[in-house]
Amino acid sequence: MNIVSTLQNAVAQAVEQLYGEATDPAKVLVNPTPPDFTGDYSVVIFPFVKVAKKSPDAAAAEIGEYLAKNIPEIKGFNIVKGFLNLKISDVYWLGFLQALVQDSAYGRLPKNGKKVMVEFSSPNTNKPLHLGHIRNILLGWSCSNILEAVGYEVVKTQIINDRGVAICKSMLSWRKFGAGKTPESTGIKSDHFVGDWYVLFEQKTKAEYEIWQQSAEAKSVFESKRKPEQSEKDFFKDFKNKWFNEYSTLGAEVREMLLKWESHDPETLALWKKMNGWVYAGFDKSYNDLGVSFDKLYYESDTYVLGKDIVEDGLAKGVFFKKEDGSIWLDLTDAGLDQKVVVRADGTSLYITQDLGTARMRHHDLGCERYVYVVADEQNYHFQVLFETLKRLGEPYAAGLHHLSYGLVELPTGRMKTREGTVVDADDLIEEVIRIATEQSKDRGEAETLTEAEKQDNLRRVGMGALKFFIVKVHPKKKMIFNPEESVDLQGQTGPYIQYSYVRINKFMHLIEKESIDLSIASQYTSIQPQEKDLLVAINDYPNVVQKAAEEYDPSLVANFSYDLAKKYHRFYHDLSIYHRAETHETRAFRLTLSLAVGQVLKSSMGLLGIEMPEVM
Fold it and tell me: Any idea what DSSP says for residue 493?
């Protein structure tokens, strides 16, 4: 039990003893005392004023006296306008520090016997991973690590969207225009190769639409279907999807290919397997560069059939209804949603059909208590519909579903190479941050003692640490702009700033080992300074931060904790003499031990975000 939990329990006990009122310790508000006041932790007394039948300050005085008498960790207290500020004894802090440095699992909880699935990435097999995928992947990976840290067995999965109209577009484009080219023959990374054919299809479609708009058929459609206030330009802008589905030659060929695929046409399946194989090889390289992996993969091509069976089942039970054209729908208007089509009139499935099948299949396979979907906020409505549908179908896992929704991420205009003018490839971004880290390292020259391979690994750690931290430090629900140059800066709220704190501590680690410094006398230190206390309070709070991040699916809490701890350590490093000029041997031993503890916690917290620490910078 850490000191905050000890204080919460003690205050709850005091309220019950003094005023006869049972109090939930978890609801006792205990926070670090603000810098302008004396104390280590402050208790908010206002919730107990009514039961105490006293003024806030009077109740605080009684509770403070009780705590000082009964809790040995409390050295003294003072009261400021209804806040009880508690001073924690140095004996407690010295014992806490010694225990921490001997606990390699500090901040982690024992296994709780519960299982949770986290689904993330989940790309389409018609294009490479992009910047949006990076935020998705890093959120999913961080949340998985954080949930594991608080005791869950975590299954990391992705559903690969390997079928459908978008995939048929890249397949059709390569078949019509590819002339037998391959990733090997062109030297293009295999997922980028497939993505280029998807881009070409969109260009061909755009050209076809522009030509069609000049036709007599288009003029007739415009005259018969336009709204009175619509200009020709506005009409054709809104009409594009309907044109593609009803008038486009390329659109008809894509639909025909999709129907052939669902009918298991051998030639279509062979083409599909070949092009998906190219994409998977490219994905694997990108995932490896990002340092992520998955425990289990699901494929839409496997799950959509089960989804259609679930729909047929629900249709028989009256959950769904069929329209005259044969399409199957769900009416959710009573839940404040809308009517939703789940199977098209031609019998083909949609994303929600596949998601129904995937949800049931995964519960059968995994048997988790909770299922977390990491998907951008553009799909908020989709997941409201999906979860409500599964609830109405009576699925036993429906209450354990959670959508980890996140905002879009963009780059400053012109900062990076883009495709189609908007999409930033993940591989380009990874290459860019490592390039910037390499350029900045040339001015410092602190890695000269490393081999070339070690230098490259160090630069990779710094570049990837910059990328990952900059992405996850923002609350998931907020939109963000990623600036590669800013992310690698050694000043400010960046990954390299935190890594530099660890590098400083790492130098002390080498000195301790080289000079066989005796750290056991740290327990004899008798004068803890404010800068030292700030660090002790911060690292003491680490387990609480991890627990809260797990409860809220919010890695930014861990990221910002890491930054605040690094900032406190830089202040400690600059204000106090840690090694050569330390006042006494006991002082040196204590400050080195404290440095080791901070390094241990920084490495742990950054590790939860998937960030490795470099040895030098």
Answer: S
Last residue of a domain, one of 47, 71, 88: 88
Report residue 486's pLDDT band, with 50, 70 and 90 as the boundaries. Answer: confident
What does the alpha-carbon distance between residue 51 and residue 18 come to, in Å, rounded to a whole number? 10
Q: Which three-class secondary structure state does DSSP give residue 292?
A: coil
Q: Is the pTM of the predicted complex or chain greater than 0.85? A: yes
Query: Do the beta carbons of residue 80 and residue 515 sit within 8 Å?
Result: no
User: Pairing state of beta strands 328-331 and 321-322?
Assistant: antiparallel
Q: If DSSP states are collapsed to H, E and C, what string results for 584-595?
A: CHHHHHHHHHHH
pLDDT in tens, 560-579: 999 999 999 999 999 999 98
Residue 585 CA to residue 525 CA, distance in Å, equals 9
What pLDDT is recorded for position 303? 85
Residue 309 exposed, middle or buried by CB count within 10 Å (0-12, 13-18, 19+): middle
Q: Which pLDDT value is given to residue 418?
A: 36
| 603 within a domain of the structure (yes/no) | no
Which of 73, 88, 103 terminates a domain? The answer is: 88
Residue 496 burial (CB count, 10 A): 25
Residue 349: beta bridge partners? 343
| Residue 75 located in a structural domain | yes
Q: Are residues 68 and 191 in the same domain?
A: no
Angle between helices 249-262 and 165-177 (to 10 degrees): 110
Looking at residue 582, its pLDDT comes to 87
Report how many domains make up the chain.
Answer: 2
Amino acid at 402: H
List, for residues 218-249, the tens digit of each pLDDT value: 999 999 999 988 999 999 999 999 999 999 99
- Give the domain range for residue 55: 3-88
Q: Which of 546, 566, 565 is nearest to 556 (CA)?
A: 546
The helix/strand/coil state of 251 is helix
Asked if residue 406 is part of any domain, the answer here is no
Q: What is the mean pLDDT of residues 450-461?
A: 89
The dihedral through the CA atoms of 165, 167, 170, 176 has a sign that is: negative
Strand order in the sheet with 328-331: 321-322, 328-331, 339-343
Average pLDDT over residues 284-308: 93
pLDDT category of residue 421 using cuts at 50, 70 and 90: very low
Number of alpha carbons in the 13 Å side-chain half-sphere of residue 88: 25
